[in-house]
Design goal:
Elements: E1 2-6, E2 16-24, E3 33-35, E4 42-46, E5 51-56, E6 59-62, E7 66-69, E8 76-80, E9 84-91, H1 97-100, E10 111-113, H2 114-131, H3 135-149, H4 158-169, H5 176-183, H6 187-197, H7 202-220, H8 226-232, H9 238-249, H10 262-271
Antiparallel strand pairs: 1-2, 2-9, 3-8, 4-7, 4-9, 5-6, 5-8, 7-10
């Protein structure tokens, strides 16, 4: 597979993390791919051949050609039906909310067709992106659409931005009560804000941060000491780490080094050394 990451235009970069283009021939693409929860939402345009999704073992359904993938809390298994050509817009945590304006929790573990999100406008932009000949043209089309949706500049939500920073800098080790005290808001109010703006609860986002940290260390730094990695990644012990790892990836740590996570790891491998700490969250 060949993968490239592209920067975002000024004015959208507070909401969108990057653009990503992935191309692969059938002989160079895993038969099945597992997309691991990473705390972000994405717009995906399959301009190559279609993909299938496995919602449960033994059941395969067609994925839309253009869709939003909501926050994941479990592995999202897909299968290519030929040549891969995928253009992806990856949002910061909470970054999609200003373009939608409503709560994000309903999109959890769901691929939502663009037409279902944005009606006729979603159908038009989807067709135009699929018909585009170059990545540069796709970026121009999508950014124009997003700028149009972002009619007014939303005000940053300081409580959620502070809480996201606390979760990241402590590697997801703080309890919800501790996060609530740091933010000076009641835990139920914090949970409602997270559900609306991020699409996850504070606890779910913290778990995602811990697993992503451990997964990157294990796969890119080639860390093999699971007990040490579990404690370093803020898990209570190795057993809790293995349980959460399997819940997020569908695999045991020892079985994660094959092709199953290859699509997720292509992106994460390129981003690992340049992960941005910049996250801005906005009020609806």
């Amino acid at each position: 597979m060949r993968s490239e990451i592209f920067p975002v235009s000024r004015g959208l970069d507070a909401h969108v993390m990057c653009h990503w283009n992935l191309v692969g021939e059938p002989h160079d693409t895993p038969v099945m791919n597992t997309i691991v929860p990473d705390g972000t939402m994405k717009l995906i345009f399959h301009y190559g051949d279609p993909y299938l999704h496995q919602p449960r073992p033994g059941v395969w359904v067609d994925l839309p050609r253009c869709f939003l993938i909501g926050q994941l809390t479990k592995p999202f298994v897909v299968r290519p039906l030929g040549r891969t050509g995928s253009f992806v817009v990856r949002f910061h945590p909470g970054g999609f909310q200003p373009f939608w304006g409503g709560p994000l929790k309903a999109f959890e573990n769901t691929a939502v067709p663009l037409q279902g999100l944005f009606g006729f406008e979603g159908d038009v932009i989807g067709r135009r992106v699929l018909d585009a000949c170059t990545t540069a043209e796709r970026i121009d089309l999508v950014e124009g659409f997003l700028f149009h949706r972002l009619a007014t500049r939303p005000q940053a939500d300081a409580v959620i931005a502070r809480t996201l920073l606390d979760i990241r800098t402590t590697n997801g080790s703080l309890t919800v009560d501790e996060l609530s005290r740091r933010s000076h808001v009641h835990r139920r109010h914090l949970a409602r804000k997270f559900s609306t703006l991020i699409g996850l609860s504070p606890k779910q986002y913290s778990r995602t941060v811990r697993i992503q940290s451990a997964l990157r260390r294990m796969l890119f730094d080639e860390v093999n000491d699971l007990t040490g990695l579990a404690y370093e990644s803020s898990f209570f012990d190795q057993a809790h780490f293995i349980k959460d790892f399997k819940a997020f990836t569908g695999l045991t740590p020892g079985g994660s080094r094959g092709d199953a996570l290859r699509m997720s790891l292509i992106f994460d491998g390129m981003e690992y050394a340049r992960m941005s700490q910049h996250t801005v969250v906005h009020r609806p």
